Amino acid sequence: MVHKEKRMVTFGQVHKHEIDDKIFDKDCVAIVDGDRERVFELFGPRFCFEYPEEHWDDSKMDFFPRGYIEI
């Protein structure tokens, strides 16, 4: 079985995306299946930070009231 890489993506104050009827903005963390290149395919340069899943710190979630949204 191949483990697929996941990325945690945050957005800036003016970054807003709608993909498959889901809104991604400053109040959520997107969970992306794939690498950094996949993040750019989905959001272009309009995101704040992206982290490999193993480097994400769940204690940061206080800043994202809408929680995690998978894409």
Any overview of this molecule?
The protein has one domain. The chain has a 4-stranded mixed β-sheet. The protein is 11% helix and 35% strand. The chain is built from 1 helix and 6 strands. The mean pLDDT is 94. The protein is mainly beta.
In total, the number of domains comes to 1
User: Which shape, going by the Cα principal axes?
Assistant: globular
Helix content: 10-25%
Low-confidence blocks of residues: none
Strand order of the largest sheet: 5-1-4-6
What Rg, in angstroms, do the CA atoms define?
A: 11 Å
The first-to-last residue Cα distance is 21 Å
- Given the structure, what is the number of helices? 1
Beta-sheet strand percentage? Answer: 35-45%
The helix-strand sequence is EEEEHEE
What characterizes the major β-sheet?
4 strands, mixed
Total number of beta strands: 6
Average pLDDT taken over every residue: 94
**Class inferred from helices and paired strands:** mainly beta
Question: Key terms for this structure?
Answer:
4-stranded mixed beta sheet; two-stranded antiparallel sheet; mainly beta; 35% strand; globular; 71 residues; single chain
